[in-house]
Amino acid sequence: MTKPDPNASATAPGSPATTVVRQTLLVLGASGDLAGRLLLPGLGRLVASGAVPGLRLIGSSKEDWDDERWRSRVADAFATVGADGAAESEVIRETRYVPADVTREEDLRLLLRDCSGPLVIFFALPPMVTARSAAALARIGVPPGTRLMLEKPFGVDRISARSLNELLSTLVPENQVHRIDHFLGKSTVLNLLGLRFANRIFEPVLNSAHVACVDIVFDESLGLESRAGYYDGAGALVDMVQSHLLQVLALLAMEPPPTLAAEEVRGRKAQVLRATRLWQDDPVAASRRARYAAGEVDGRRLPDYAAEPGVDPARGTETLAEIVLTVDNWRWAGVPFRLRSGKALAAVRKEAVITFKQPARVPAGLTGYEQPDRLRIGFGPDQLGLDLNVNGPGNPYDLDQVQLTADFGPGELPAYGEVLRGAFEGDPTLSVRGDVAEECWRIVEPVLAAWKAGAVPLREYPAGSSGPADSLIGPVSG
Ligand SMILES: NC(=O)C1=CN([C@@H]2O[C@H](COP(=O)(O)OP(=O)(O)OC[C@H]3O[C@@H](n4cnc5c(N)ncnc54)[C@H](OP(=O)(O)O)[C@@H]3O)[C@@H](O)[C@H]2O)C=CC1
Ligand SMILES: O=C1O[C@H](COP(=O)(O)O)[C@@H](O)[C@H](O)[C@H]1O
């Protein structure tokens, strides 16, 4: 007779007689901004979807909270996404909080003693604390099968990313390391796969013979939002471009994978990123940096970035970063990939835009050709758009540009719910492989060095403007 599994809970009476393996999610950094604003709401929706029956949740950080304080944080976060069903209530009722310094072995030992069943550890910690915590865990070991979820930025440069990779490889196999990039859980980012590989019409023209340039832009109206502790040490290049926008580039530019198995998709992404480098290897010409000065965005008055509480102006942290890259392979050689992200901007623009070359020849007699064709993939609002030149109304020989637009509904899960699901199901497809994390640092490192050496001026732009005048990316009309 087999012993009943203490980690198994019976399913509801009347339902098929399967046992449910109860997983534990241990959140390190449970009192932080990420945990409250993104991770717990994503978890709430995932629990509501029924994907993690019987989940046990443990929160931990240095704050001297008790279970009740933590429970109300979880309940508030779940409420923001309407996660208030029976399964979510049970997680809230059962969850516990353990104060700990997670860089100390003895604290981690106590924490792990409280965990049972298959374990997922989420490091919602500042990058340096994550590295120290992982080092302490490596000294004491983790239960077999444990999956680790690590936030971006992964390390603080290529060398630290490599050391962290080496350290993690002593703890668990690579497939159990989930380096998170929540953009990979966004439904429109995932839609890139369907758009490119489930249609006949786009893939044959996605190459240097037909594409003039590719822009990947994430302009936000949000300012610092009290995140100086993290953001002032990172800046826009590391916060957005080195991580999220390079992941989008990889999905846009990679070769078709034969299947969506993790090793295929992650292998294709690694291959294309290995071919990616700065345009003409010139970090000065191929980058721009700027930070916002006082101004008004959406009726909200923002102070100078440098005067925000917690900011050290001497660091010269940028709130807007642009880089131009080349993907040096047969398909893309010669096509500029322009990546940009900025905060406190007037126009929210979150999209990838593929601009096609002019037609080989517009017949004489057909007038009004002004704008090239463009394919737009919007990351918020989630939209797909195609800008085309057609014979407009009125004079039939005069061209007009029209926009065909499709709106996507929100995905089944928010981005954090999606990446959490990957970890609970042991599927690393949506997480960043170790070599890819290092490759992304390799791509931006010359820019970081040029900025540190003062070779690229730090411009200013008023909050609520369209950014610095010498942008490498012109406005895209339409
Ligand atoms: N916030 C966001 O929007 C996003 C954040 N991220 C990433 O998530 C990570 C966390 O960011 P965020 O939540 O904003 O940061 P916060 O500073 O808000 O939170 C950090 C958390 O880590 C805890 N902590 C720090 N040191 C220790 C320690 N030695 N032992 C135990 N707990 C410790 C803090 O606990 P205490 O307060 O008790 O010190 C706090 O709970 C970062 O890597 C960031 O890049 C990624 C995407 C978005
Ligand atoms: O990781 C981050 O992403 C957000 C933007 O992503 P969204 O899904 O919230 O739109 C960005 O504001 C933040 O600075 C960055 O850390």
Topology of this structure?
Blueprint: E1 8-10, E2 19-21, E3 24-28, H1 33-48, E4 56-60, H2 67-80, H3 86-94, E5 96-97, H4 105-113, E6 119-123, H5 127-140, E7 147-150, H6 158-171, E8 177-179, H7 187-197, E9 211-219, H8 228-253, H9 262-274, E10 276-278, E11 287-293, E12 295-297, E13 300-302, E14 320-327, E15 336-342, E16 349-356, E17 374-379, E18 382-391, E19 399-407, H10 415-424, H11 434-452, E20 458-462
Parallel strand pairs: 3-4, 3-6, 4-5, 6-7, 7-8, 9-15, 11-20
Antiparallel strand pairs: 1-2, 9-16, 10-14, 11-14, 12-13, 14-15, 16-17, 17-18, 18-19
Helix pairs in contact: 1-2, 1-10, 2-3, 5-6, 6-11, 8-9, 8-11, 9-11
What is the CATH class designation of the largest domain? Alpha Beta
Using the 3D structure, state the CATH architecture of the largest domain. Answer: 2-Layer Sandwich
CATH homologous superfamily grouping of the largest domain: Dihydrodipicolinate Reductase, domain 2
Characterize the biggest β-sheet: 10 strands, mixed
CATH fold name of the largest domain: Dihydrodipicolinate Reductase, domain 2
* Share in β-strands: 15-25%
Tally of DSSP helical segments:
11
Given the helix and strand composition, which structural class is it? alpha/beta
The N- to C-terminal Cα distance equals: 70 Å
**Total tally of structural domains:** 2
Distinct small molecules: NADPH dihydro-nicotinamide-adenine-dinucleotide phosphate, the ligand O=C1O[C@H](COP(=O)(O)O)[C@@H](O)[C@H](O)[C@H]1O
Query: How many strand segments?
Result: 20
